[in-house]
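REQUEST FORM: STRUCTURE PREDICTION
Request ID: SP-0412
Submitted by: Lab K.M.
Chain count: 1
Length (residues): 104
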Amino acid sequence: MSKDGFVKSSGNVFEDMGLEDADELIIRAQLGRAVRSILEEKGGKQRELAALLGIDQAEISKLMNGKYHLFSEGRLVGFLNRLDRKVTVHIEPRDQEKRTLAPV
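STATUS: Completed
RESULT:
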């Protein structure tokens, strides 16, 4: 903790909260937020948006209310595909200075 009483974030609020599945939760939050943002841009009734994604209205409601943890990463990526978005994954060591690749 710094002298002003603040703690520097790790960049993942779920990790900062000490949650075991923090990496999965942050990915779901990022994907879910992207889906929600696109759906908000499109506008329309939840029933119409549900049809667009091939899900029921109750699930759209969960998405629009930020309950991304209820959806798998794969399912959220599928929604983005249905919304005509390209999803890419970038992988690198967490701490570039301290990590080296282990021999295979």
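NOTES: The CA atoms of residues 29 and 50 lie 19 Å apart.
Reviewed by: T.R.
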